[in-house]
Amino acid sequence: MRLIEEWRRSWRWASVRLALAAGAISGWAASDPAGFAQAVALLPTWARPLVGLLVAMTAIGARITTRGAKDA
């Protein structure tokens, strides 16, 4: 394992932004469980289990793919 060169540019990476969004949603769920449950209840029943999977797979996909630039 090695450190990333020019780590200050990491905010530009989609995976970092997705992880930040997932962390914010998790924080909301932990601090206001009733409000989060109400928001989740608005989703169709079949979509509820897929939300977490979609967020995780999107973050992983954004991290392992490249856009051609060294720091993209």
Structure description:
- With 72 residues, this protein is mostly helical.
- It has one domain.
- Helix content is 61%, strand content 0%.
- The protein has helices spanning 14-31, 33-41, 48-64.
Provide tags for this entry.
3 helices, 72 residues, mainly alpha, elongated
Cα-atom Rg, whole angstroms?
16 Å
Question: What is the beta-strand fraction?
Answer: under 5%
Spatial shape:
elongated
Please count the beta strands (DSSP E, at least 2 residues each).
Answer: 0
What are the low-pLDDT stretches, counting only 5+ consecutive residues below 50?
none
Residue share in helices? Answer: 55-70%
Mean pLDDT: 78
| Structural class based on helices, strands and sheet pairing | mainly alpha
| Total count of domains | 1
Biggest pleated-sheet summary: none
Continuous helix count: 3
The helix/strand order is: HHH
Distance between the termini: 19 Å
Q: Could you give the topology of this structure?
A:
Layout: H1 14-31, H2 33-41, H3 48-64
Can you give me a brief rundown of this structure?
With 72 residues, this protein is mainly α.
